[in-house]
Amino acid sequence: MPEVRFWLLDVASGEGTVDLWGVAEGGERVVVSFPFMPYFYLVPSRGAGREVGARVEEVERFRLGRPLRCLRIYADDTARAAEDALRRGLGDAYGYDLRRADLFLISTGLRPGSWAVAEAERAGELWGYPAYRATGSVRAEEGRVAAPDLRVVSFNPTYLARRASPRPDRDPVVAISLYDGSSSRTLIGDERSILESFVDYLARADPDVVVSFQGNRVHWDYLSRRARAAGVRFSVGRGGSEPHGSVYGHVSIRGRVNLDVSEFVEEVPEVKLERLEELARYMGMSVPEEAPEDYEVGDLWESDRAALISYSEWRARAALEIFSAISDYVFSLSAITGMPPDHVLTAATGFKVENYLMRFAELEARELIPPRRESAHMTYQGGMVLQPEPGLHHDVAVLDFKSMYPSIIIKYNLSLETVHEDGTIEEGREQGFLPRALERLLEERARARSEAERSPEGSTERRVLEAKQRALKRIANAIYGYTGWSGARWYAPHVAAAITAKGREIISSVISKARGLGLRVIYGDTDSVFVSNDARKIDELLGWISSELGLEVKVEKVYVNVLFTEAKKRYAGVTADGRLDVVGLEAVRGDWSGVAKRAQVEVLEVLLREGSVERAVERAREWIRRVRSGDVPLRDLVIWKQLTKPPEDYEATAAHAIVAKRMREAGWDVRVGDKVGFVVVRGPGRIYERARPYFEVTGDQVDWDYYADKQVAAACARILEAVGVDESRLLAAGGRGLEAFFG
Ligand code: TTP
Ligand code: MN
Ligand code: MN
């Protein structure tokens, strides 16, 4: 049997076939077509038999661990066939709402972003590419880790909008920068020729991966519309196809991976990364010092076109470099979940977990896949958080459970089969579906880690395996959250509640034991306890946890000094290795001005590193004086706040909503989810009446007293009040001057 080996890039539904786009072993780009008839399962009601469909097989499946006699029914349109069977009362239907291409991957075990072997013969060409027709089976080729050499191109468009957000019905494309990994170029000229050259370039370069920053949310749609208006056929996909909207808000480009690196920020929730510059800096890349803001593009196009073009070329290069840095990780996520590389970044975490579970269900557990239905969201109690002892503490150890929720799920066999709706846990049952799926992930992770360690340092294998183990951890850690997500096929809030309840029980027993041993317990959150750093007693405690609870705890860090406020989840500390950790305070919150954040961090540094309250107070007063005198750059005064609903739906006192409305009136495209930046100016009226879009404000308009009192002093007081300093001591500083009396 002739075989074709290829690395799977993309999957598309054809006419009665599923078409796999791949890079074959010799580097050839190929399309391999499989005849594929989708199927679903029916658990027949009494009496119902094989008459339900034209092609029916009897199979054994499980529903929550219980074996069931099932019918596997093949049908072109499984959703319709299942609906029909349900209407006729023939039984319960499962797995009928999967997309054809997804079902194909799930049932064959093929993974995008990995190698496959198919029995297939050459069958001419399809859309100008060598085509193969399947003659037998197809399977994943295990154990082959490295991706082939992929052709990657990135692009960055520039739209000409004047002092407003670009709008595709109004503002033209004036440039598109392209980068192929070695050279940059920018297409300019009249719009029609730019778009034609772009299509042309992609046809000739024929990339496997097209990289952008915000391609899904902005560029593909924008460029498609401009092309339509200009009468240019926007055939950027393989075989001349145009982009089309797909699942998860993703845009599909046939035969290519359309990778929008802006979506990688979801993978690093601990850091706020919104602009390309922030993401690039986070990835350790160099970033231009003076990046133009969106609103400056129109003016720059006239005044310094060369600078704008070189910035646009930087953006295209940065996007591609980010892709290179994350591609192993993305392909690993793809292989684990079975979702194509471009979908896997776009899809919410719940869908990633679910795709993994569906594969595990069909291929290993032989569990039926429940249909997706809208469930009412149920809240449940989360982890335990202790009320902290406010103030400054010295020499504090943070003890933290290793993989707490995953460990609990496995150790207590918490699953849909074993946890009853009322929260009681059935013991002595076989390992449930969730713990099994999770254990499989952890086994694979352990294997990837040890294989990585055996691979030579700096080798491709090692790099890929390390990315793989991180991706496996990501999915394993998300399983608990999945059970509490109301969109889940296996939605099980009672299981989520049982997991957190066990967690609370365990952490309480650790706290009691710690106190019994004479350790001071200062704080605790979910699976961590902060205790006085007494090495001998801590050792004893860890020993007890391992022998009595059968779980593992590590000393995660030691704080030389740590400061707690009255509030939970708001503290800061300096670790033994000299790092400042800030949790939940203004300094790490989005909706405070940069100057307030900087001042707060400096006050924390002085307090925690030098241990001096007096010097910390002095530092706060210096900042207040400085701000009151207007000696701070404007960009540090901007307060960014996210629009979480349409501006009209906010109360009349929400400053950012007022600013958003004004921006809309002035022609800006401000959408739900956008961050609105404003500065508070002097004048009559309340603060929310004095908020202005940040780019309209000049230094002489700023309400410096607002920034001194309500931003800097307030943020510093939050810290200093925890060590007994009253806010009035700060405000007494830097005299408000005569203006305050007469103003
Ligand atoms: P962590 O201690 O952060 O994580 P962990 O115990 O799983 O792993 P590690 O070995 O690195 O300590 O969080 C404790 C539990 O809180 C974790 O098991 C699951 C839950 N949790 C979430 O559900 N979502 C999250 O984003 C985080 C950080 C934790
Ligand atoms: Mn932990
Ligand atoms: Mn923790």
Structural class: alpha+beta
CATH fold naming of the largest domain: Palm domain of DNA polymerase
Strand order of the largest sheet: 18-19-17-20-21-22
DSSP strand content: 15-25%
Mean pLDDT: 93
User: How many separate domains make up the residues?
Assistant: 4
> Could you give the count of β-strands?
25
Uncertain spans: 737-743
CATH evolutionary superfamily of the largest domain:
B family DNA polymerase, palm domain
- Specify the CATH class of the largest domain: Alpha Beta
From the 3D coordinates, which CATH architecture of the largest domain would you assign? Alpha-Beta Complex
Question: What is the 3D shape?
Answer: globular
Ligands: thymidine-5'-triphosphate, manganese (II) ion
Q: Count the DSSP helices.
A: 21
Separation, N- and C-terminal Cα atoms: 90 Å
What features would you describe in this structure?
The protein has about 750 residues and is α+β, with helices and mostly antiparallel strands. A hairpin with a 5-residue loop joins strand 14 and strand 15 (about 250). Mean pLDDT is about 95; it is low at about 735-743. About 40% of the residues lie in helices and about 20% in strands. It has four domains: about 5-140, 2-Layer Sandwich (DNA Polymerase, Chain A, domain 1); about 150-325, Ribonuclease H-like superfamily/Ribonuclease H (Nucleotidyltransferase, domain 5); about 350-575, Palm domain of DNA polymerase (Alpha-Beta Complex); about 585-740, Orthogonal Bundle (Topoisomerase I, Chain A, domain 4). Helix 16 (about 595-610) packs antiparallel against helix 17 (about 615-630), helix 16 (about 595-610) runs parallel beside helix 19 (about 705-720) and helix 17 packs antiparallel against helix 19 (about 705-720). It has a six-stranded antiparallel β-sheet. It has a five-stranded mixed beta barrel with strand order 1-2-3-9-8. The chain has a five-stranded mixed β-sheet with strand order 12-11-10-13-16. It contains 21 helices and 25 strands. One manganese (II) ion binds near residues 400 and 526.
